[in-house]
Amino acid sequence: NFKGNRWQSILWGHLNYQIEHHLFPDTPSHRYPDMAKDVKALCQKYNLTYKCNPSWAKAIKNYTAVFWKYSFPTKK
Length: 76
Fold this sequence. Notes:
The chain is mostly helical.
């Protein structure tokens, strides 16, 4: 996930709520912002990490780093 204001969320088709999308793929995307509050609360209750990047650029940077790390065989 990554933070965005209401208009950014609409422009991106609510793709900044990937956690909610993968938990509830059949739910209309305009519901994700409200659902995110409940998902965050559940994560906190069960001591699970709810990762939300501060921006789209940071989300892409983190994704690229993880993708790069796991795309190649480990060196021995």
